[in-house]
Amino acid sequence: MFGNQTEGCNLTLMEEVKFFYKVAYIPVFVIGLLLNTAALCVFLRKRASWTETHVYMINLAVADFALILFLPVRIYSFFNQLEVWDFCPYLIAVHYLNMYASIFTVAAISVHRLVAVKFPFCARAHGLRKRTAFAICVFLWAVVVTICVLYSKLNSTQELQSCFEIALETIELRFVLVFFILGFFLPFCTILFCSSLTIFSLLKDDHVITHEEKRKCVAIITANLIVFIVCYAPFNIMLLVKFSVAMQSQHISNCATYNLVHNIWSVTKWIATTNCCLDSIAYYFLFKEHFALKLTPDPQHMPVTQISLTYSLANQ
């Protein structure tokens, strides 16, 4: 079940990794199901007061929930052999569908937050309202679904190492680079740039924001960035590494390097999956704090920048 035959190597997961898979995915499913269900229920209860921020957050929750529904099949495969069949490429696509939908949504949220804080008048004039947010989310899903459908169709069952993993040496380099650059590197650069500029703008504002309020906002933005890096960077970097090694697998006499990389990459897949739980923790702070600064009672004397700090604001 855990061994994968390639053209030059027979990939086998270490016993420790097999055990880790069996133990670690179940808590992710249980916790993720509870947290995401609760988050969606809260979002639906507040639908009358949805802002554009709610639209982005719901989009993120739906992407996470899609992965949660997929996990039972994944967990079952750890305990029982799943034969490679026609539906397997689509099961693989579901995993990537969730990951890239989440990545693109977080990037959109980062841009939305920066515009609201740095260019509040621009945000008001050009939308960034619910309709615009809906349109952006629909566009993101269209892009992600198209990529994943093409991905599944380009890989026949004969090219699968297992029901949940393709043979990387059968994929063209350009396709892997598209996944890495468009699916991770560019969104990461966008998130890093927008988060850094947002923090810088907040720290510069000395009119209304107290030191404690600044600290909380900067801490949450920084935590979101760290979670993104920790969850998605290892998987995407190791994907490139594994592809590079896979291209040379037929030249590796003992395949030790390929097996080691395969095991490390397998663990990073679990790390990426945990994002569906960590996002839900962010939702908790959204509704607990409304990610809002405690402003002065008279809104007429507040800087527009502060009124428009809507990264995770919900209407009071």
UniProtKB/TrEMBL annotation:
It is found in: Membrane. Keywords: G-protein coupled receptor, Glycoprotein, Membrane, Receptor, Transducer, Transmembrane, Transmembrane helix. One of its GO terms (cellular component) is plasma membrane. GO terms for biological process: phospholipase C-activating G protein-coupled receptor signaling pathway; positive regulation of Rho protein signal transduction. Residues 35-283 form the G-protein coupled receptors family 1 profile domain. PROSITE patterns: G_PROTEIN_RECEP_F1_2 (PS50262). It comes from Anguilla anguilla (European freshwater eel). Pfam families: 7tm_1. Signal peptide: none annotated. This is G-protein coupled receptors family 1 profile domain-containing protein. PANTHER family: G-PROTEIN COUPLED RECEPTOR (PTHR24232), G-PROTEIN COUPLED RECEPTOR 35-LIKE (PTHR24232:SF101). One of its GO terms (molecular function) is G protein-coupled receptor activity. The lineage of its organism: Eukaryota, Metazoa, Chordata, Craniata, Vertebrata. It is a multi-pass membrane protein. The chain crosses the membrane at residues 23-44, 56-79, 99-121, 133-154, 174-197, 218-241.
